[in-house]
Amino acid sequence: AELADRVPLIWLNLAECTGCSESLLRASTPDVSTLIFNYISLEYQEVLMAAAGMQAEENLEHAMETYQGRYLLAVEGAVPTANNGAFLTIGPHATTGVDLIKKAADGAAAIIAVGTCSSFGGVQAAAPNPTGAKGIHEVLDKPVINLGGCPPSEVNITGTLMYYIMFGKLPALDMFNRPKWAYGARVHDNCERRGHFDAGEFVEVFGDHGAKEGYCLYKVGCRGPYTYNNCPTERFNAHTSWPVLAGHGCIGCSEPNFWDEMADFERP
Ligand code: SF4
Ligand code: SF4
Ligand code: F3S
Residues in domain NADH:ubiquinone oxidoreductase-like 20kDa subunit (predicted)? Predict the structure, then answer.
């Protein structure tokens, strides 16, 4: 497709681990090269772009000016707000993450928070949250689509981008601004171990007989009954697997505050 036909995308990385970019790279329907050659014009993406240093800065400035009001803005990572945002500075002018996303959001046609960090704060926001990490919607005055998940699956990222590209509007959203097509059902609703839950067959400790038989992981901390995401049906890595299939319960990674309230790794 000609450049003029493709939707410009600016992807910013704030306080994050790059897992969401890694997830995007595993897209298969369409794959990431089809996405960037046919549907989007990837103007700025720190993990994928060839440019570095001043040239990268110029590319970003150029894209924000040239495609003012037309570009999609994707943000990966929470925004640190404590000490006037000083916990995250980027580039030669030491621009804070807060200032950067406010500026980029100004000219964006739509804003997508990719992952639980940019949606709700994520692990950076775990108590006592010394950097004041927040979801980007808390510092922006425009609507933000939240793709919860640490990371969200590549299907949920590309599906949301493609929805906007194909229909020119945003998908229907749930109470946390997550697309309903992806986050409309609980993990528990479609889990392949649900039959064992219903039959009262549970893994009691990891490595026991039930674990070998693929029993339900509820008693070893699975939060699937309280978590909205399509992991059991779409899976990850080109539909290869997902946490429960791999033998570990869901830790609620697509939910606000999962890091303090749901994840079993912080319980004694
Ligand atoms: Fe990494 Fe998870 Fe944050 Fe994505 S949401 S950047 S995978 S910590
Ligand atoms: Fe529900 Fe988790 Fe058991 Fe699956 S493993 S049935 S999501 S409690
Ligand atoms: Fe996250 Fe639970 Fe899916 S931990 S990846 S929402 S199964």
Answer: 17-163
